[in-house]
Design a protein that fits this description.
Structural class: mainly alpha
CATH class of the largest domain: Mainly Alpha
Order of helices and strands: HHEEHHH
CATH topology of the largest domain: Arc Repressor Mutant, subunit A
Oligomer: single chain
Mean pLDDT: 86
Shape: elongated
Helix content: 55-70%
Strand content: 5-15%
């Protein structure tokens, strides 16, 4: 919570105890406005920082896609996951649906990066990158 928002909390708490007090209501609304402004400013700084990092050639956007990992801000292939990506590509080329690919990977004991089972959406995101 920013300094201004903390000040508003103090002011709101010093007002009358009645929740119907118009001054208390106005201050609470103002606190909400400034809290929203602060969240927006943080998000804008994050976007600008990611954009700057991407312009410099670094990886700056969330979790790396399956089959890749971030090393020193750069995307590099993950050898273990690349084997799985190649298997997905082979199954997809053979005409298997996303659901069939998910079930095949689960049956073969291949674990996804997160979770216990493969999800059709996860396989779909990998296939979309081919």
């Amino acid at each position: 919570m920013g300094r201004l928002a903390r000040w508003f909390v103090v002011v709101v708490n010093r007002q009358g105890r009645s929740p119907d007090d118009p001054m208390r209501t106005a201050m609470r609304q103002m606190m909400g406005v400034f809290a929203q402004l602060e969240r927006g400013m943080i998000a804008a700084r994050m976007r600008a920082g990611r954009r700057l990092k991407a312009e410099k050639g670094g990886f700056a956007y969330g979790s790396p896609p399956y089959g890749m990992r971030a090393v020193d801000g750069e995307l590099v292939p993950d050898p273990a996951e690349q084997v799985v990506v190649d298997r997905i590509r082979d199954l997809h080329t053979a005409g298997a649906s996303l659901r069939e690919i998910s079930r095949t990977l689960d049956a073969e004991g291949v674990s996804p990066r997160r979770g216990v089972r493969w999800q059709d959406r996860s396989v779909g995101r990998i296939v979309a990158r081919f």
